[in-house]
Amino acid sequence: MQKVKIFDTTLRDGEQSAGVNLNMSEKLEIARQLERLNVDIIEAGFPAASPGDLASVREIARTIKGCSVTGLARAVISDIDAAWEALKEGAEPRLHTFIATSPIHREFKLKQSKEQVIETAVSSVRYAASKFAVVQWSAEDACRTELPFLAEIIEQVIRAGAQVINIPDTVGYITPEEYGNVFKYLYEHVPSINKVELSTHCHDDLGLAVANSLAAVQHGARQVEGTINGIGERAGNTALEELAVALHIRKDYFQAETRLNLQEISRTSTLVSKLTGMEVPANKAVVGRNAFAHESGIHQDGVLKEKTTYEIISPELVGYQNNSMVLGKHSGRHAFRNRLKELGIEVQDQEINRLFSVFKETADRKKEMTDEDLVAIVLEEGLSKTESFYELKSIQVQYGTNQIPTATVTLSGSANEEIQEAGTGAGSIEALYNTLEKCMNETIDLLDYRIQSVGAGRDALAQVYVKMKCAGKETSGRGLAQDVLEASAKAYLNAVNRVLYMKESAEPIVSR
Fold first, then answer.
1. Of the candidates 376, 239, 254, which has an alpha carbon nearest to the alpha carbon of residue 318?
2. pTM of the predicted model over 0.90
3. Whole-number Å distance between alpha carbons of 454 and 324
């Protein structure tokens, strides 16, 4: 049984999803959960992108000890230095560096000849190897690169000190059979190939990312890169939960396995979904809410008689549990803290009292507090906070079927000044958002607005996600409250505060 390493890039490639903007505490919470999931490598970010990204990668490297932490770097000395500065205190610091190799990238992006690309790649790998114990090298757009040239440059970077070679399908173009043949070709034409591990990084533009990654495993890849829920650039990346469960269920066929703790899959998926604001489709394999639902009468009859008639994956395998402890307004601090620990949520001592106060205030208005409520409160109150340029003081909205919806908003600004405006709109949310925009010194375009209930019942909490363009940057925000309008206002301000906080350190987009 072959061992396959899992290289998680949720915090790097996943965060490049349009509108996703995680702060440091959110990244750290995801990294801790990835450690519980037992991934082998966490790609924590791109340290050279900004001081903020460097600081986040450094904090993750200092905190995570159960797996290796890596960062991305272009084939540039300053990028490698920034990565070393961020990663040097980690338990097993490694570098991930890359350069494009395909004809279209060489001609139009790099404007370099084959010889120049090889020279740049070799010199950067050699420099990286002088600092890092493990250097991974990627051929960006490898699957549209001439195979003889791909083999040539791989041999050269191995000689320069690379220990892991990644073959990315950067644009999601290749098919499983073709991808497997690439790995077969490299094993036959790269003399030093047996000295390194081969890795796969697939994008899902044609819906083939998981299939391609599995084909690579069949042809000798011993590391798979991907993200939780398959998030990432454009159509996303290989969904790691799908790949890991496929290897587990069909180990008889693939003869390969990971070291992932599969029972942490559900919790990890939910955390990433809530913090990124990217909802998991109901019909998504493994983690969609319909993945274990049976509508057909024939299917229901079969499952009732014997689950395996229509259910090849048990919900328990990936961590779904039907038992949920219900807390209420009479629950004490100990029960609250203990349940958070059981849910895998780590809260600092100085934060527990504030979160417990929020819990008690919410429990006074809700009859019961479920696990979903607890997770939502902690993620909203404990992790989503960033530097507040604007803080909501009060809102009032007037609406009637024969009236023009009108909103009045009071905010406090970064200098503690009070800002008050009123505005109208075609509906309550539009009136509220028009009024909030009047309070800002920025033009704001709302790109997406989504609302969902946390749990069920008339007193369920409302969670609102927004995507917007503010100060020329696309960002996202979320808000939680029992009242839909209050949650909407919080989400709007959360998004604005994030982009204003990041304004001075705009991050370039990097893809592989």
1. 239
2. no
3. 14
Please give the Cα distance from 436 to 442 (Å, whole number).
11
Residue 131 φ then ψ, to 5°: -115, -45
pLDDT band at residue 263 under the 50/70/90 scheme: very high
Phi, then psi, of 388 in degrees rounded to 5: -90, 105
Q: Which residues of 439-472 are buried (b: 16+ CB within 10 A; e: fewer)?
A: bbeeebebeebeeeebbeeeebbbbbbbbbbbbe
Q: Six-digit token pair at 84?
A: 């070393």
Q: Is 73 strand, coil or helix? A: strand
Confidence at residue 507, expressed as pLDDT on a 0 to 100 scale: 46
> Residue 31 and residue 8: Cα distance in Å, rounded?
10
In this structure, are residues 3 and 259 in contact, taking their beta carbons and an 8 Å threshold? Answer: yes
Q: Residue 297: is it exposed, middle or buried by C-beta count within 10 angstroms (0-12/13-18/19+)?
A: exposed
pLDDT of res. 471: 82
First vs last Cα of the chain: how many Å apart? 30
How far, in Å, CA of 332 to CA of 336, rounded? 6
Q: What is the mean pLDDT of the chain?
A: 90
Q: What one-character DSSP code corresponds to residue 108?
A: I
Structural tokens at position 221: 């890849």
Looking at the predicted structure, is the pLDDT value of residue 12 above 70? yes
Where b means 16+ CB within 10 Å and e means fewer, 189-211 reads: ebeebeebebbbbbbbbeebbbb
In this prediction, residues 61-78 reach a mean pLDDT of 97
Question: CA of 100: how far to CAs of 144, 233, 306, 366, 510, in Å?
Answer: 10, 17, 52, 55, 12
Tens digit of each residue's pLDDT (9 = 90 or more) over 294-322: 555 555 556 566 777 768 898 899 998 76
Q: Are 315 and 297 in contact (CB under 8 A)?
A: no
311: which residues sit within 8 A by CB, 6+ positions away? 292, 294, 303
Distance CA 256, CA 261 (A): 15
Tokens coding 209:
């990312």
Task: Give the pLDDT confidence of 197-245 residue by residue, as tens digits.
Answer: 999 999 999 999 999 999 999 999 999 999 999 999 999 999 999 999 9
SS3 call for 61: helix
Q: What distances in angstroms separate CA 385 from CA 9, 345, 390, one per listed residue? A: 23, 16, 12
- For residue 345, what pLDDT is reported? 77
**Contact 41/70 with Cβ under 8 angstroms?**
yes
Taking alpha carbons only, the member of 242, 184, 252, 248 closest to residue 208 is: 242
